[in-house]
Amino acid sequence: MTAVLGGRTAGQTSLALDGDDTRARLVVVGNGMAGARFVEEVLERDGGEHLRITVFGDEPHGNYNRIMLSPVLAGEADEADIVLNSHDWYADRDVDLRAGVRVERVDTVAKVVHAADGSATPYDHLVLATGSHSFIPPMTGVRTADGSLLPGVVGFRTIDETRQMLAAARTHRRAVVLGGGLLGLEAARALQAQGMVVELVHAAEWLMNAQLDAEAGAVVRRSVEELGIAVHLGALATEVVGTDRVAGIVLKDGRRLDCDLLVVAAGVRPHTDVAVRSGIEVERAVLVDDRMATDVPDVYAIGECAQHRGTVYGLVAPAWEHATVLADLLTGADPEAAYTGSRTATKLKVAGVDVAVMGVSTPERDSDEFLVISEPRRGVHLSVVVRDDRLIGATLVGDTRKVAFLTQAFDRGTPLPAERIKLLVDLSDGDAEVGVAELPGDSQVCNCNGVSKDRICGAVADGCTSLPSVMDATRAGKGCGSCKGLVRQIVEWAADGELTVEESASWYVPGIPMPKPELVTAIREHDLRSVSSVFATLARGGVEDAKSKMGLASLLKTIWGSDYVPEPDATFVNDRVHANIQRDGTFSVVPQMKGGVTTPAQLRRIADVAEKYEVPMVKVTGGQRIDLLGIRKEDLPKVWADLGMPSGYAYGKSMRTVKTCVGSDFCRFGLDDSTQLGIDIETRFQGVESPAKIKMAVVGCPRNCAEAYVKDVGVVATGKGRWEVYVGGAAGASVRKGDLLATVSTTEEVLTLIGRFIQLYRENGNWLERTYDFVPRWGLDRIKAVLLEDSEGICDALDEGIQRSIDAYTDPWARDLAEPASPGQFRTSLPLTVLPQVPVR
Amino acid sequence: MTATAQAYVVGRAEEVPLGEGRAFTAGGTPVAVFRLRDGSLRAVAAVCPHAGGPLADGQSDATVVVCPLHLNAYRWEDGSSPTGAPPVAVYPVREEDGALVVET
């Protein structure tokens, strides 16, 4: 419960070096969405070269995405997923993060920040980004004698409050959420998803009254109630009941609602204490001008704690605009930068309903045009307000397909269709993609990061063809994530014109323009035995492609067995040094342990090696083996020699391991000797290359203790000497139960069938295509016909093919111990300084 | 960058086998030196700008080197990254009387 989000590894500290640092001192108070983004923007402008940055954060955590707390509460996201910048991030960039240290006041004359830990930090520039806190409405009994909230009463603003709610959801049953705005609705839905009985109490007459009109609010209410959440409108809570912990609330009309968790989401108030105590001018929030400057020289305010031209914003996009403008000014990147206000448009999902709002929700003048489409039964309510031929407001509930166009019209004042109804519905019955195609290039798609359609299309033109790569390149969709659907549509639309994208999708590797069957034929025809000869003969212009080499090397090994001509540049580092490279550049070593069965002698040797080479972590793997992690490259041959065990191939695109249960030797339930069969299978197929890794298991009864149903190949004893063979199962990023290929009566048949299946997969699977994709792609019926009835007359060839690879097996560790593959094969490639430090356990 | 480049002998030419990369230090700067399939030499900073991966362990072709950790690619020509990572430093490298010379 007290884990620090994005924390540093225990024992690591950062050194603050002072001395002859002549850089100006920039102090940021607040490490939330605004403060941390500001630091990022400063660093992006190389501000670190002349600014020494200190960040104070009230919370002990690194910087995390507050918008994503609702998904965390609902169990849809992990805490780790919402970390934006870890403590290491700050340390790596020479930013002094004082996490968990509250700033008390600022001496604006001496220009010193005083914090609760007694420290005094001088500044040249001070940025207040203190954000907001939950507003707790006055209610009898909500606080205990010492002024703290009654246990069981919690706001919804921080990760710690989210953790409190999650803990309560595990041990308690009834929750009341105060506040029917966005945050309250999200909390209610999330807690309900966690299994609590939830009631929602809202003071106004309809939900989301700040953003929606009454009718739209009613549509949202219907959807919320359909989820099983009771909604009380026009209800004011006056009292909190309970002595040691909240037991309920009393409403103004006398009704009592029982609960053991009370979530207060009745609005936020800017954190202005520090500014007030320091004599900085504050109204509702800290007053700033167009340069984000307060009335005190060299003190600035951004985000939710700032009041600009009378407006205090509660959304992330304006806060990030503040951060950009101030970073431009303080780094000198754009001395003329000015912030003139934001037109806020919000797009979100409330209680499962898509909602988008911008500008006003109802007409304000007699001359305003107001168009409403209301379909409460379908849960759809759409309205727009038009003044003098310009869109000044739009509300979309339940159907946000037109949001891109409307946002554009709202932001830029682009011309509106004369038939106003076209603002809300597509009258032409063209396909949905028209919307994306017609979207003007400069229209903003990601509001959080200010990314236009043009920039997304530009990223696609520059070669990004997948959604993640476009998101990485442009940051689109990396704020609240609500625009991801639109980003995907645009990427698909933009990539469609590129015929090469379509075409290359069927190629085995990107560098050779051929699907796998054609490629195999061509390799055989031209007798190509090395990767370089494949490029020279089959690539366009004979050009080599580094990212294609690994797939080609695997294919050539499959085709030629021991006649394959290896080349060092064609081989991935894992296959060059027969170990799996780790994030810090060290390697993991997994000796073979057939069927997961080991001996005291083996264990003793492994223990000796672990001690001798100071192995940072010894881990029992999911594949029933022992992994030595953190081995230096230069130590690999010595480790192998001392182990005296063969490689377990835990690094390759190859047959990895065969898990077994204890079978009939010891198990009371075992129907057959699964352990021995597993060892036999691993012995036969050890080290066989394949398009992707192959994991296997054998179990002695359908209790499935070694998880054979979810392996690439799984074998299950059913008694009386019979075995079921399953293929195409997975329990990794995808989970799929394997398909029953056949039931056979002898272990010899099991071995033959597995060999045929593996060879079929090796000859026909695409590079990196796991069996759980290959089996459905080919179809179980076709695979059965080919392997069991020899419908294509290839069974003999399959048997020969797999036998050739089995005969070509040599233990790579023993081979390279006898003679290194190339000079300096095990020489370190580490610069030894800047890699992420993996903790020693 | 006004400082004049400094040339360092980092090792022997035969220390970099055909098609592979090896890490060296050039006057305190860690560099990864590669011998491409055509026999020519290339040198870049030894540390991947993305997440600190050992570039000398990467696979290469005539155009790019690919970091082994997350498969970010970097162009020999100017160090820029077609996969969107920050650019890597590129250094002139040559063979002189069997010695590897890198300018940083």
UniProtKB/TrEMBL annotation, chain A:
UniProt-annotated binding residues for siroheme: C705
GO-annotated molecular function: 2 iron, 2 sulfur cluster binding; 4 iron, 4 sulfur cluster binding; flavin adenine dinucleotide binding; heme binding; metal ion binding; NADP binding; nitrite reductase activity; sulfite reductase (ferredoxin) activity
Annotated catalysed reactions: hydrogen sulfide + 6 oxidized [2Fe-2S]-[ferredoxin] + 3 H2O = sulfite + 6 reduced [2Fe-2S]-[ferredoxin] + 7 H(+)
EC number: 1.8.7.1
Ranges for domain BFD-like [2Fe-2S]-binding: 445-492
A Pfam family annotated for this UniProt entry: Rubredoxin_C
Cofactor note: Binds 1 siroheme per subunit.
Location of the NADH-rubredoxin oxidoreductase C-terminal domain: 345-412
Residues covered by the FAD/NAD(P)-binding domain: 25-317
GO annotation (BP), single: nitrate assimilation
Sequence ranges assigned to domain Nitrite/Sulfite reductase ferredoxin-like in this UniProt record: 581-643
Domain Nitrite/sulphite reductase 4Fe-4S, chain residue ranges per copy: 652-790
Cofactor (UniProt): [2Fe-2S] cluster; siroheme; [4Fe-4S] cluster; FAD
Pathway: Nitrogen metabolism; nitrate reduction (assimilation)
Residue numbers binding [4Fe-4S] cluster: C661, C667, C701, C705
Keywords (A to Z) from UniProt: 2Fe-2S, 4Fe-4S, FAD, Flavoprotein, Heme, Iron, Iron-sulfur, Metal-binding, Nitrate assimilation, Oxidoreductase, Thioether bond
Family the entry assigns: Belongs to the nitrite and sulfite reductase 4Fe-4S domain family.
PANTHER family on file: NITRITE REDUCTASE (NADH) LARGE SUBUNIT (PTHR43809:SF1)
NCBIfam families on file: nitri_red_nirB
Stated role: Catalyzes the reduction of sulfite to sulfide, a step in the biosynthesis of sulfur-containing amino acids and cofactors.
Protein name: assimilatory sulfite reductase (ferredoxin)
Taxonomic source organism: Klenkia taihuensis
Origin organism lineage: Bacteria, Bacillati, Actinomycetota, Actinomycetes, Geodermatophilales
From TrEMBL, chain B:
Domain Rieske: 7-102
GO MF, one annotated term: monooxygenase activity
Alphabetical keyword list: 2Fe-2S, Iron, Iron-sulfur, Metal-binding
One of the Pfam families matching this protein, by short name: Rieske
InterPro entries assigned: Rieske_2Fe-2S, Rieske_2Fe-2S_sf
Highest taxon listed in the record's lineage: Bacteria
The keyword Iron-sulfur appears for this protein: yes
Keyword set includes Iron: yes
Designated name of the protein: Nitrite reductase (NADH) small subunit
Source organism (scientific name): Klenkia taihuensis
